[in-house]
């Protein structure tokens, strides 16, 4: 479907009750700070809508350290560091309906320095005490820029066979810092509507999960969340986020052990943790994408909530469905 590109000067005349098709991150620092706070709650089992698995606490706390470091580094980036595209490049992306910050194209060289800063911060917080983490950080330091770029290409393309699963989360985290900061500098009218809804219109990366939002113009609408730049874009409900079919969609979930029994109330009562997370499964492509409902948890953070809800992944996988896309902060080895 061809989407008409909004011309300059038309924005002011738009209906302000219209559905926002795209939600850009406010700032990179704010995005990663929010994730850090959410991960602290998830690691402590304080999110009622997600079944707490104590075995994940160590991993979630490590990711909390990662997102905290991301926030600090993002706050230090200058406008020059971001290397934003010029107006000619933005206009060309609009004309050809392409992501203006395509992550698969040439990356700003500063991402290597960002990765080094991330490694330094994590090594400092680790203080050499966690042997496995120290080994991974040391192995990352040993890679030259060409090898790092090859790993970044594999991470962005989700080529699992070429990805080092121990190194990949940290490479992805460095890329996220840069791309989230760049996305926050865009204006909505600079981003075209792509012909496919299965890729981020800002950077062309894959979505991690989706969220039903509450409040304002986005009330009750489903948005996919980019795993790289944190942008969210609207996609209608009951439609597969992998193949875009809608004929065989169903929803599967599990009730957290500690979730309170819902009081007698209408089925759509808000703040029911039993309804917070579901897996949207597709009978056509046999893939699934998680969908989080902000109506049942105002503090929903789909990117990190996805990491903490692995129990749902296991159950849905056992039912014969394959995850549509990888969370870039969690990779499994070949035998996983």
From TrEMBL:
Protein task: Necessary for formate dehydrogenase activity.
Q: Name one GO biological process term.
A: protein maturation
Query: What keyword terms does UniProt attach to this protein?
Result: Cytoplasm
Q: Where is the FdhE C-terminal domain?
A: 238-330
Gene Ontology, cellular component aspect: cytosol
Q: Which gene encodes it?
A: fdhE
This chain belongs to which protein, by name? Protein FdhE homolog
**Pfam families, per this entry?**
FdhE_C (PF24860), FdhE_central (PF24859), FdhE_N (PF04216)
Mention one GO molecular function. ferric iron binding
């Amino acid at each position: 479907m061809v989407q008409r590109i909004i011309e300059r000067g038309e924005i002011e005349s738009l209906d302000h009750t219209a559905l926002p098709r795209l939600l850009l991150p406010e700032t990179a620092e704010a995005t990663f700070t929010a994730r850090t706070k959410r991960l602290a709650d998830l690691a402590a089992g304080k999110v009622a809508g997600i079944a707490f698995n104590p075995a994940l606490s160590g991993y979630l706390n490590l990711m909390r350290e990662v997102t905290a470091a991301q926030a600090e580094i993002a706050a230090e980036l200058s406008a020059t560091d971001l290397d934003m595209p010029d107006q000619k490049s933005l206009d060309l992306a609009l004309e050809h309906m392409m992501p203006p910050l395509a992550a698969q194209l040439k990356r700003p060289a500063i991402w290597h320095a960002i990765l080094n800063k991330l490694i330094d911060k994590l090594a400092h917080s680790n203080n050499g005490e966690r042997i496995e983490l120290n080994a991974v950080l040391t192995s990352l330091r040993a890679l030259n820029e060409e090898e790092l770029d090859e790993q970044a290409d594999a991470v962005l393309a989700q080529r699992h066979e070429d990805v080092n699963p121990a190194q990949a989360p940290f490479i992805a985290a460095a890329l996220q810092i840069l791309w989230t900061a760049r996305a926050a500098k865009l204006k909505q009218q600079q981003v075209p509507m792509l012909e496919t809804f299965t890729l981020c219109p800002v950077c062309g990366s894959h979505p991690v999960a989706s969220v039903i939002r509450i409040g304002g113009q986005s009330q009750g609408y489903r948005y996919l969340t980019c795993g790289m730049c944190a942008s969210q874009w609207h996609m209608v409900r009951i439609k597969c986020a992998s193949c875009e079919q809608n004929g065989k969609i169903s929803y599967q979930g599990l009730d957290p052990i500690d979730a309170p029994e819902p009081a007698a109330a209408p089925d759509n009562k808000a703040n029911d943790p039993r309804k917070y997370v579901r897996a949207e499964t597709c009978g056509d492509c046999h893939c699934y994408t998680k969908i989080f409902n902000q109506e049942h948890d105002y503090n929903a953070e789909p990117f990190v909530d996805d990491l903490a809800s692995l129990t749902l992944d296991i159950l849905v996988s056992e039912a014969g469905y394959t995850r549509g896309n990888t969370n870039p902060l969690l990779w499994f080895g070949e035998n996983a």
